Amino acid sequence: MEQQPQTQPAVRPETHYIQGDLVLFRDVERFWLGLPAHTFVGRVERSWTNVQSGKLLYDLTELSGNHARAGIDPDYMRLLPATDAMHDIDTAPLSEPDTGAMTPAAVAWLRQHLAQDSTALPARR
After folding, report:
1. For the residues of 41-85, what is the DSSP string, one character each?
2. DSSP secondary-structure letter at 20?
3. pTM for this one?
4. In a domain, 1, yes or no
5. Residue 3 three-state SS
6. How many domains does the chain have?
7. Does 76 lie in the same domain as 87?
8. What are phi and psi of 38, to 5 degrees?
9. Which of 26, 54, 105, 122 suits a disulfide with 76, CB 3.0-4.6 Å?
10. What does the buried/exposed string (b/e) look like for 26-50 if buried means 16 or more CB atoms within 10 Å of the residue's CB?
11. Which secondary structure element, helix H or strand E, spans residue 112, and what is its range?
12. Residue 33 CA to chain centroid, in angstroms?
């Protein structure tokens, strides 16, 4: 008798989000129906447990329109780390004479900084 290979079920990592976390989330019904506008950026407002399923769910505020979204399944959420959001500023070529080589976020940061104190640039690292 031939022995069948042993398989193990896939284990999904369990992530817990806290109030104020910025996340990318997907409206799963819109996604599977092939409808546009199914992925959003949101801020976690609270978490709660569904009494029927026992599943931990989240209430979010959709940042693009300040809409409340209730009962979001964390399987369809991903944390948006600050390091990713700030990468373009952290790696901006500040020594470049052409500001076109900088990303718009880096230019915006420089303009804001210079507007606060036009006498000094940030210290070089």
Report:
1. EEEEEEEEE-TTT--EEEEEEETTTTEEEEEE-GGGEEE--HHHH
2. T
3. 0.62
4. no
5. coil
6. 2
7. no
8. -110, -5
9. 26
10. bbeeeeeeeeeebebebbbeeeeee
11. helix 104-116
12. 23
Q: Is 69 exposed, middle or buried (0-12, 13-18, 19+ CB in 10 A)?
A: middle
pLDDT, tens only, 69-85 = 999 999 999 999 888 88
**Residue appearing with tokens 């329109």:** 65
Shared domain check, 64 and 111: no
52 is a domain residue: yes
14 domain-assigned = no
**What is the tens place of the pLDDT at every residue in 88-124?**
777 776 666 666 666 676 777 777 777 765 555 556 6
> 26 and 39 in contact (C-beta within 8 Å)?
yes
Tokens found for residue 15:
């992530």
As given in the structure block, the two tokens for residue 31 are: 């996604």
Structure tokens given for 27: 């409206």
Residue 65 sits in the same domain as residue 36: yes
Query: For residue 52, what are the domain limits?
Result: 22-80
Give 41's strand partners: 24
